[in-house]
Design a protein that fits this description.
Layout: H1 18-29, H2 49-62, H3 71-79, H4 83-99, E1 103-105, H5 117-120, H6 125-128, E2 132-134, H7 136-153, E3 163-168, E4 177-179, H8 190-201, E5 215-217, E6 219-222, E7 225-232, H9 245-262, E8 267-273, E9 277-280, H10 297-309, E10 315-322, E11 328-330, E12 336-338, H11 345-360, E13 363-369, H12 374-387, E14 391-393, H13 399-408
Parallel strand pairs: 7-8, 7-10, 10-13, 13-14
Antiparallel strand pairs: 1-2, 3-6, 4-5, 8-9, 11-12
Helix pairs in contact: 1-2, 2-4, 7-9, 9-13, 10-11, 11-12
């Protein structure tokens, strides 16, 4: 049975709620390796309790966790604390995160869970409580927060389903009624039907209905969409002085939360591509960091097609987020051919073959470029020509705005 061992804490936690602390720490929990791009050669553990404590301390010292009218007073109190009192405060706040299920703290081999690092674990427990993991509750919170932030940035306060120009009879009525025609869903407009009969025969009982009296509700035709997010996690996504992968993860998580809560008829899945490609559960996306160096776009497209063939939706699309041209290819013998220099004819031709197959299957490819080098632009231009999709040159700051607006603006797309 799991247990948590605490040390008595007699101080004040400044009235900080766990949810507010999660907001302040969201970038830390979503980190993608940018803080230390060479972590494979150094001892760096982003899930170490000491690192969490340091991030909590930085959040406190920034003052963002305190009300505006009390900020200076709280910061003065914080600066006046002794080292031991500060340790106790950080431990109390970490304990609050653990108690409310936002983090789970690593324990011993027998399954016990010990309290996080400084502030509320004593004796031998402190040695085994050196690591933590974010929980599914945290991931759901982070996805919701990312979506809320992005919706606020683009001026959207409420969300609906994918509307099209087509009018059809359905359960959700949003238009005027119409005379019933053979093949319509029998979603009767009772008022219009009875009024038609009374206008013909007068107000009497019993009222004889005729076929010509039947009226049905019209509704906006709402299409369903199967989406695969094709996310580049090659090492270049955190190099060159900019973290592109964390914003991409945030947008993917926000889109996943949007689909799950607002478009239940849709499906969304995620494929990571680097030297090769693999599917990832959306719930695990926040924990992912960048992988190997090269960009095997073809493997990503192959896996995305395989996934979309399993879906029975009106629309099928691939959303590709990348910062580099294809530079790797899996050969028939299983070996990975790599060429990071320029547009390799073999790599490009094989990749564009898969783009052509996507078009034949009715799969739309929308590409969001996080870089604007010549080779990437040329490749993406060819992709959009073949599959008649869209291409956006985005930055980590406006990626979410472009992607979510593109996803929701399906009212301009006619589905037959």
């Amino acid at each position: 049975m799991k247990r948590i061992t605490y040390r008595k804490y007699t101080g004040d936690d400044f009235g900080i709620e766990a949810e507010d602390l999660m907001r302040a720490l969201s970038d830390f929990f979503l980190q993608s390796g940018y803080q230390d791009p060479y972590s494979s050669w150094r001892e760096f553990d982003p899930n170490a309790m000491d690192e969490l404590m340091r991030q909590i301390q930085e959040a406190l010292e920034s003052g963002d966790l305190f009300p505006d009218d009390e900020r200076q007073e709280m910061l003065d109190r914080l600066r006046g604390m002794s080292s031991e009192e500060l340790d106790d405060l950080l431990g109390e706040l970490a304990r609050k995160l653990a108690e409310e299920g936002y983090i789970s703290v690593g324990g011993a081999a027998d399954g016990t869970v010990n309290a996080p690092g400084r502030g509320f674990a004593e004796g031998p427990e402190r040695e085994t409580a050196s690591r933590f993991e974010v929980t599914d509750k945290s991931l759901d919170f982070l996805g919701f927060r990312a979506l809320k932030d992005l919706m606020g940035a683009i001026g959207k306060s409420s969300l609906g389903s994918h509307d099209t120009r087509e009018q059809a009879t359905g359960v959700e009525s949003s238009g005027s009624s119409k005379l019933y025609e053979f093949g319509d869903t029998l979603n009767l407009d009772i008022s219009a039907t009875l009024f038609s009969a009374m206008r013909r025969e007068g107000a009497k009982v019993p009222l004889a209905l005729e076929y010509s009296d039947l009226h049905v509700h019209q509704s906006e035709y709402q299409s369903s969409c199967a989406t695969v997010i094709l996310l580049d996690c090659s090492h270049s996504m955190i190099l060159y002085g900019e973290d592109r992968f964390t914003p991409a993860k945030k947008v993917a998580m926000a889109l996943g939360h949007l689909v799950r809560t607002q478009y239940p008829g849709d499906s969304i899945r995620c494929v990571l591509f680097h030297d090769s490609a693999e599917e990832l559960r959306m719930e695990e996306l926040a924990r992912v960091q960048v992988g190997p160096y090269h960009t095997n776009t073809r493997d990503g497209l192959l896996l995305a097609q395989k996934i979309l063939r399993q879906e029975k939706k009106d629309m099928k699309q691939i959303i590709m987020i990348t910062d580099g041209k294809p530079s790797a290819l899996t050969l028939e013998n299983g070996q990975i051919y790599k060429n990071p220099f320029g547009l390799d004819p073999l790599v490009i031709s094989k990749t564009l073959e898969e783009v052509g197959r996507c078009r034949k299957q009715g799969i739309l490819i929308n590409t969001f470029m996080l870089a604007q080098d010549y080779a990437l632009v040329q490749f993406v231009r060819k992709v959009t020509e073949i599959c008649r999709g869209k291409a956006y040159f985005a930055t980590p700051r406006n990626l979410g705005e472009y992607l979510l607006m593109d996803y929701m603006n399906r009212k301009s797309r006619v589905v037959h």
